[in-house]
Amino acid sequence: MNLILFQKRSDFRKLPADDPRAVHIREVLGMQKGDRLDVGLVNGPRGRAILLNNPSGDALRLKIEWGEEIPKPCPISLLAGLPRPQTARKLLRECASLGLGKIMFFEAEKGEPSYKKSKLWSAGEWHRQLMQGAEQAFSTHLPEVSHFPSLRAALPDFDKDPFPYRVGVDNYESTMALSQFHVNDDETLCLLAVGPERGWSQDERNTLRETGFTLAHLGERVLRMETATIAALSIIAAKMGLM
To answer: What is the pLDDT of residues 84-104, one digit of tens each?
Structure first.
């Protein structure tokens, strides 16, 4: 991890010896008393921490000087058919690394209903995946994650938080390559829709078109969901001048 994240300011005063962050400081970074490391508050500022004691198996004590700048989220959000847990883990980490504003999962018509019962969602692991992605990217921003029972159920939310740019990835009924989709190189919000691992249903394609989405493809190859998602996000971010 390139940045150690804390949920709130009081968390950093004493890190238990078995806390994964303490283990990382002790065993991976090999730090000693007086050494400095980069830290951050979730959705808050970054800072520099000084290690106040040697990490010899005891709880670690830190003194932190916080900065004022709070990293902004990327103006891109993801609407995705709920995938199998191992794929969802990858998406959560990588989307957090890219700084997405929101990740909205929906139960797709061709999806597997049992995926929503995974311990990934019930035991809080999904949040740890977000933390790992943000720490890797030296960012404090965590995407807002929500779940919906269907694509249609997810769409009314857009009335409250509209996305001027809406594009869905589809190999079969797309009208253009994603590289041809026009977005301004500013902070206007863009929503990317990606279907589940078994693809969109015809009703879902129609729903996307009815709600202002352009269907675009990523070329001739059929990609895994996580590969297609990251490729599409990268194309849009590049077109916005973000990478």
So the answer is: 999 999 999 999 999 999 999
Structurally, the chain folds into a number of domains equal to 2
The contacts of residue 213 (CB under 8 Å, 6+ apart) are: 166, 167, 168, 193
Is 71 domain-assigned?
A: no
Give whole-number Cα distances, 199 to 40, 52, 55, 221, 226, in Å.
38, 53, 50, 14, 13
Say what the pTM is.
0.89
Contacting residues for 142 by C-beta, under 8 A, at least 6 apart: 42, 43, 96, 127, 130, 131, 134
**pLDDT for 170-187, tens place per residue?**
999 998 999 999 887 766
Q: CATH no. for residue 59?
A: 2.40.240.20
